[in-house]
Design a protein that fits this description.
Layout (H helix, E strand, L loop, with lengths): L1 H48 L56 H21 L5
Amino acid sequence: MADEIKALFVQVLQIAQAKAQIEAAAAQAYEQAQAQFEAKQAERERRKNEGRRPPGPSPTPPSPAVDPNAQVNLTDADSRIMKISHFITACRLAVPRSDDPCIHTDRGSRQVRQAARSQRDSGARAAGGPG
């Protein structure tokens, strides 16, 4: 029981450190974005003072808020967190067709069709159907 409590305490400390790291990165990103915003504003003012129209819409000021989806890898700080794809590639092997993308060769598709035909025929014979 003491080991579980100790592991839980370590995990809470790691999460607190990760949160502090995310907040520090967000503060640094905010400072950079604020500097870029001020430079763009100064450029727009310079163009207005010259009598020229500033290009495009006025820039929006950056937000100091931390991204709620920001993540840090707790086990390896040097590695990135990979994005998850919600697309699962799967082959339909129960109902083979000649246009099935999982069957790549004519010989393979012919063998699969023959196996399906023989399985269907043997099932029909067992059920007392024609065969």
